[in-house]
Amino acid sequence: MKPGLFDFYSKYGWPAHRVLAKRYLTPRCKKCSISARLSPLDIDGICGLCTTPNIDQSGNIIPEEQSMMENRLRTILSEAAGKGDFTYDALVFFSGGKDSSFLLYKLKTDYPKLRLLTITIDNSFMSNTAHENIKQAIGFLGIDHITVSPNPRMYEKLFRYTFTHLSPKGSVYSIDILDGELRTDIGRHLATRYKIPLVIVGLSRGQMLGGSGVVRFEMERQAELAPRKTVTTYDVRELPLSKNETKLWWSGTDTYQDADIPHVIFPLAVWNYDEEYLKQQVVKLGLIPNRNKSPVVTNHTLIPLMAIIDMIKLGYSSWEHECTPMIRAGKADPIYWRNLFEMIEYAAKTGKFIKKPVDDILKRLDLTRTAVGLPD
Ligand SMILES: [Zn+2]
């Protein structure tokens, strides 16, 4: 099943299919769709995180704190305009997904004086849909854009290692976060060398919470200056990279002057949009074609393998950590995500739906099912 069909089936086929597939499925919270394995359910089928809002970790904050963050972000973005030594004031990461597309639109519209350079780091596992979206949005908005494509063999080595040395918290922490941190580091090197004072990353509030419930939207100066030693659960020295490849990780004041090191911010963690609203807006504004708006179709091609491994090893999906807080905060649709999680669980237990994309990635990474802990 191709990603587009998977997404379509999750909306129109799965609601009937799930009734027949019940014996394969772990119960999920009726409110936030979290697996009972992550947060036990009461007799009404509601999880502990939903019944005890003070520990819900959803990133819901009081209005005063929200407006303080909005003001601080506005100040950072307004003051950055014209600050770059050369052509640009801000480097913005652009993945072709709905979040970063809308982020670009907002920056371009609300801060017309901010000179933007957008950057895509192509890890060679990006979907064609993402490439298509990037082309359309960049053309539509009229923004300068560069693509950096590090050696695909390097990414294959990295992912082969992480798939066989998975974090106990699951594949998001081993693969997605590592990939994202490497992307950010490559961008920070470029921004520093081009004297671009601001780096803008399109992570959502859910992605920034990291299970802590604390909303952060800017990197602390100390972290910006420090060279990278670890990435998620790995020591960077344990990763199978050559000496030259290792230099892609952030080197901070080991290489650069304090004054040249850019500030890193995450505006979507402040603006905190509703996921369905973002999907509608990017299509309505003409940034992304309607068929290309779902995260299922824009995300990279490693996702099916990651999803299956999580379900087999953990019994739930490691995306639930970032997406159920957004559902509890009323920012994402519980039924949409319930259907996707259930289809992945069903696929993991029956081998249906996503066998081919899983086999394709295993083949490309020169791995077997047994090597990544899947049954044959
Ligand atoms: Zn719940």
Structural features, described:
The chain is an alpha/beta fold and 376 residues long. It has two domains: 3-58 and 302-372, no CATH class; 63-271, Rossmann fold, CATH 3.40.50. 48% of the residues lie in helices and 7% in strands. The strands form two sheets. A five-stranded parallel sheet has the order 3-2-1-4-7, with helices on both faces. A two-stranded antiparallel sheet has the order 5-6. Strand 2 (116-121), helix 6 (128-141) and strand 3 form a beta-alpha-beta unit. Helix 5 (98-110) runs parallel beside helix 6, helix 5 (98-110) packs across helix 13 (275-284) and helix 15 (303-313) packs across helix 17. The two termini are 20 Å apart. The mean pLDDT is 93. Zinc ion binds next to helix 3.
